[in-house]
From TrEMBL:
NCBIfam families: maleylpyruvate isomerase family mycothiol-dependent enzyme, TIGR03085 family metal-binding protein
Name this polypeptide is given: TIGR03085 family protein
Residue stretches in coiled coil: none
């Protein structure tokens, strides 16, 4: 039997976290309970309209309404269990997400799993398989510049295991901020969940504050 890909492993982890939570359990996604997050995952993989709404701001309102409507069907334990079963099942074969693989789903499922795990308050980071940590670090280096290009400070990311990546140089009179953490924690920070992460930032206070205004720090 073929081994599971990382996004399949992380889907299973997310499913376990959702099943361990109640429908109204808090998450790191502002305004979303566990049932809303589950609805988001299901619709991302079953509705082209909602998928477009995630990427296109003009369609975001319709996507949010669809998520709210599906989440409303999961207020009872039975309805919630049925929705989480759909998360576990994954996308239909006709949907583009069925062939998107780790490229589209690795960070998505890792972050949402942590959204559920850490939603109720601080919990220790998971100890990740080294190969998974390497995969997350590669994704961090791939998308960090695009996500931080509007922040005028320079940025260097340091993986706790040693590797570092110079993401971008500073603009004008600003300096560079160094952000350190395990690969999974850096993913959370770049995804706007830094307040729940364990990353550490070093730099001039004004530069750290500018960076933290866009990407919150612990």
């Amino acid at each position: 039997m073929a081994s599971m890909t990382w996004h399949e492993t992380l889907r299973a982890d997310l499913t376990d976290a959702l099943r361990a939570a109640t429908p109204d359990a808090p998450t790191l996604c502002e305004g979303w309970q566990a049932r809303h997050l589950a609805a988001h995952v299901v619709l991302r993989e079953s509705s082209l309209r909602v998928g477009a709404g995630i990427a296109v701001p003009a369609l975001a309102g319709a996507a949010e309404r669809a998520i709210d409507e599906l989440a409303q069907t999961a207020t009872t334990p039975e309805g919630y269990a049925a929705l989480v079963d759909r998360v576990a099942a994954g996308p239909s074969r006709w949907h583009p997400m069925s062939v998107a693989g780790d490229a589209a789903n690795l960070v998505e499922f890792y972050v949402h799993g942590e959204d559920v795990r850490r939603g109720a308050g601080p919990v220790p980071p998971r100890e990740l398989d080294p190969a998974l940590a390497d995969a997350l670090w590669k994704d961090v280096r791939r998308f960090a510049r695009a996500r931080t290009h509007k922040v005028p400070v320079g940025l260097v990311l340091v993986n706790a295991d040693g590797p570092r990546a110079r993401v971008k140089g500073p603009k004008g009179e600003h300096g560079t901020v160094v952000v350190r953490g395990d690969a999974g924690e850096l993913v959370l920070w770049l995804s706007g969940r830094g307040a729940a992460s364990t990353v550490v930032a070093q730099g001039a206070p004004v530069d750290v504050a500018l960076l933290a205004a866009r990407f919150p720090l612990p």
